[in-house]
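Folded chain entry
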Amino acid sequence: MSLRNPYGDFEITDPQAMRALAHPVRLAALSYLQRNGPATATQLSEHVGASPSVTSWHLRHLETFGLVSDSPAPEGGADKRQRWWQAIARGFRFEMPETPEGAEAGRMLRTEVMSQALDQVQHWIAEVEPALDPRWSRATGSSNTRVTVTLAEAEALENAIEDLLAPYVQRGQGGAPDGAEPVRLIRMTLPEATS
């Protein structure tokens, strides 16, 4: 399946970059920057479970692969000695490489992405959902559906879902109408092993 990328995500094709991003601290730092905007290593450290110096080291590693960059300090007299970081894109995507080494790197990244997604779900269940407006709680969807499809149909389904979501992703928070709230869509498509 080729990457269509209707969201404008950062496309990771280098297995070394996949391996680098598969580290829990790096993935957590990138995810935080994508969700919340620019931050310093000190600010990120409390969200990624590492000291500021370790977080800074991981950010510099992500920078070598073009996933993060320096950001101007925010307005309001921020300390100019602090280094601010930003994500290059609001999301990332990768295609499973065809080489054995690349596929191993892709599996490492996929594993960490899914692990952190499951952690987000557990946090949402325990902390966020109980405090939601009941209308938003009822509007949330959960499903576990099995379909039997060909490879071409599976690709068509993925493309159709991305095409449906693309206008909402591309407009961002600034282009959303009044009353819009951020919603995290976690989608996992898991082909089952054939017997």
